[in-house]
Amino acid sequence: MGGVLILVEAPRRFAAPCNIETPEAAVLRKIIIAITVIWMASVPAWAQDSDLNGPSMAAIVAIGESLAEERCGRCHALGLDDASPHTDAPPFRVVAKRYRLEDLAESLAEGILTGHPDMPVLVFKEDEIDSFLTYLGSLLPNN
To answer: CATH assignment of 25-138, given 1.10.3470, 3.30.980, 2.30.30, 1.10.760?
Structure first.
């Protein structure tokens, strides 16, 4: 009774060592990052295009303005026509015009680094980023 023994090794697609990323994992990681970036950018973009006079939007703008005052107000102008206390710090109304707010989300999450020695590295939490960017959007001329 001679039988044939066939050994088949199961595919090891996802059994890579921890320090090596499989192609499937790399694709999945990129998809997750893309979805996260799109999601983070959607609230500030929505805030720029929506009516900022609604009660919930007004509350979000107020929270963002409070964050700006607390963390940035000693150098940056916060209003529509005031001067910045620090001459090298642009007013936030200028920042809102100069940069796409969606592009600022990642910098705020990782910590804004500038060539200016007086500016501290500031890192915002996700909900703070949304509120802060909604506030910046409220400074744009159409709002």
So the answer is: 1.10.760
